[in-house]
Design brief:
Layout: E1 4-15, E2 18-29, E3 33-37, H1 44-52, E4 59-64, E5 67-68, H2 74-79, E6 82-85, H3 97-102, E7 108-109, E8 112-113, H4 115-129, H5 144-157, E9 162-166, H6 174-189, E10 193-197, H7 201-207, E11 210-215, E12 218-224, H8 230-238, E13 256-265, E14 274-282, E15 286-290, H9 297-304, E16 312-317, E17 320-321, H10 327-332, E18 335-338, H11 342-346, H12 353-358, E19 368-369, E20 372-373, H13 375-388, H14 405-418, E21 423-427, H15 435-450, E22 454-458, H16 462-468, E23 471-476, E24 479-485, H17 491-498, E25 503-504, E26 510-511
Parallel strand pairs: 3-10, 3-11, 6-9, 9-10, 15-22, 15-23, 18-21, 21-22
Antiparallel strand pairs: 1-2, 1-4, 4-5, 7-8, 11-12, 13-14, 13-16, 16-17, 19-20, 23-24, 25-26
Helix pairs in contact: 14-15
Main location: membrane
Subcellular location: Cell membrane
GO cellular component, one term: plasma membrane
Length: about 500
């Protein structure tokens, strides 16, 4: 009997002139967790989308449970027990969470949808896996982390025994990720077969039985977890060592560039309301904001950048009151913004890489000449940004929708940092990107600081906060529970403050 429930052999997939997968190989055993890793653009998500039937293969063979599949559609994949939790959410914003979960699989009572039955079925998963989702909220009203949990519940509900998870922890808190791992191991014990795509090598080492590596569209081999290490995996992925620990420059910070003065910011969720918060950022420093997702970080960033109204208090940029100004006015005052969700706030996915790179200053030289567009100036700039930020593929005329998540993020980072503004607000700048892109983005933020910018960094990654920041503020339920220098911080004292601690005691330990 064949030990594999999935076999992918000699896979080739092209998108126009771009060869996304040149030589793809992958196998999955019954009752195992098999991780698939590689840089953004390496082809790993494309491989799994081919298995799920989202794209047709150009060459090669896919066998599921011993059956050659030929042409696969998502419907056929689901019928064969294949489910996929996507990195980019497949949710309808104006439908409720419950409606999204049952969409296409609605239980019926006569000619109508039996919502009572659906609610009972979904609640079983919520209670069993402690997913904490609000069934009656519209998807447009929930946080990024909650939307990810909706996707996970939606896939689990369909009862797939082959489950593909594409960066499932990218938007989860450490606590949620730990619980997810418990779920995955339980599924594995029940005989489910799981594909785990992640850029976080510590997670890959924690959860995997086997690990396969792709580089630039090619299969680079498979190893058992016991036979490898994060350093070995990094070299297999990239072909060189990667250094995530920043050579941080310590210097005296300059003048105060951002002042948040006793602001009160509304939110639909009680735990996300900002209640009388004050903080500041100086030129030449990075101030990190740590906190469990959904405790007011998004609301704070949106208020600073003009995307959310402030009820009380003031926000000053370069001494100028920008409270409740439009996003355009805030930008004109000297602010750049890397948003937490690149697809809804950072990019127009239908536009080209070049168009996204120049979007915020399209009416300025060298992109215009008088009242006319200067195409040569646009092309020169786009070529320079693509090379400097290693955006792949390097064709700046491609639509941004053709890029992997990490390369799409590089477009946002390139555009915002190249503005040279006095304040850079970076919200989850490395969320869902590979280890090579993380290295590039972290070094870019450090360079912006050295060039004299003030950086407000919001990140769910405590290691990133500690590594990059000069000062750290911690927020819990819309209030600051502590502030410290980065050299005083560790995951223990920050974690306690994130849970609601209010003081620091001996050795920087948080008191609750």
């Amino acid at each position: 009997m064949n030990e594999y429930v999935v076999e992918m052999k000699g896979i080739v997939k092209n998108f126009g002139q771009v060869q996304a997968v040149k030589h793809g190989e992958f196998t999955l055993k019954k009752g195992e967790i098999h991780s698939l890793i590689g840089e953004n653009g390496a082809g790993k998500s494309t491989m799994m989308k081919l298995l799920y039937g989202m794209y047709p293969i150009d060459e090669g063979e896919i066998i599921v449970k011993g059956e050659p599949m030929g042409t696969i559609t998502p419907k056929l994949a689901i019928e064969h027990g294949v489910g996929m939790v996507h990195q980019e959410f497949m949710l309808v914003n104006e439908l409720t969470v419950l409606e999204n979960i049952i969409l296409g699989f609605e239980p019926k009572k006569g000619l109508t949808i039996d919502f009572d039955k659906a609610r009972k079925e979904v609640k079983k998963y919520i209670e069993q896996y402690h997913m904490d989702v609000q069934l009656d909220k519209k998807v447009s009203q929930i946080s990024v982390g909650e939307a990810q949990r909706v996707e996970i519940i939606k896939t689990l509900m369909r009862g797939a025994d082959i489950i593909i998870l594409d960066e499932p922890t990218a938007v989860l808190t450490p606590q949620e990720a730990e619980r997810l791992f418990e779920i995955l191991n339980n599924l594995k014990q029940d005989g489910k077969s799981l594909v785990f795509i992640s850029h976080k090598l510590n997670e890959v080492m924690a959860i995997s039985d086997r690990i396969s590596v792709m580089r630039q569209g090619q299969y680079m081999g498979t190893v058992n977890k016991e036979e490898t290490s994060p350093l070995d995996l990094t070299k297999r992925m990239i072909g060189r060592e990667v250094f995530l620990n920043i050579d941080k420059a310590y210097s005296e910070a300059g003048d105060t560039i951002l002042e948040v003065q006793d602001v009160w910011i509304p939110s639909q969720k009680e735990t996300s309301k900002i209640r009388g918060m004050s903080l500041h950022v100086k030129t030449g420093e990075i101030v990190g904001v740590a906190g469990i997702d959904g405790n007011g970080q998004s609301e704070l960033v949106e208020a600073i950048t003009g995307l959310r109204k402030v009820e009380k208090g003031k926000i000053l940029l370069c001494g100028k009151d920008i409270t409740n100004q439009s996003p355009r006015k805030v930008r004109e005052s000297g602010l750049s913004h890397i948003p937490e969700d690149r697809n809804t706030r950072g990019l127009n996915r239908a536009m080209t890489i070049e168009e996204n790179l120049i979007a915020v200053r399209l009416d300025q030289p060298p992109f215009t000449r008088g009242i006319m567009m200067n195409k040569s100036g646009q092309d020169t700039y786009a070529k320079e940004m693509v090379e400097q930020f290693d955006i792949r593929p390097a064709d700046y005329n491609l639509p941004t929708s053709s890029l992997s998540g990490g390369n799409a993020q590089k477009v946002v980072v390139a555009r915002e940092v190249s503005l040279g503004n006095k304040l850079l607000v970076a919200s989850q700048p490395t969320r869902g990107v590979d280890i090579g892109a993380i290295e590039l983005i972290r070094n870019t933020l450090e360079k912006a600081k050295k060039a004299g910018a003030g950086v407000l960094l919001v990140s769910a990654e405590l290691e990133e906060i500690i590594s990059l920041s000069d000062r750290i503020v911690v927020i819990h339920e819309g209030k600051i529970t502590g502030e410290m220098r980065a050299d005083e911080a560790n995951e223990n004292n920050l974690g306690l403050l994130m849970m609601g601690g209010t003081d620091t005691g001996k050795d920087g330990e948080a008191a609750v």
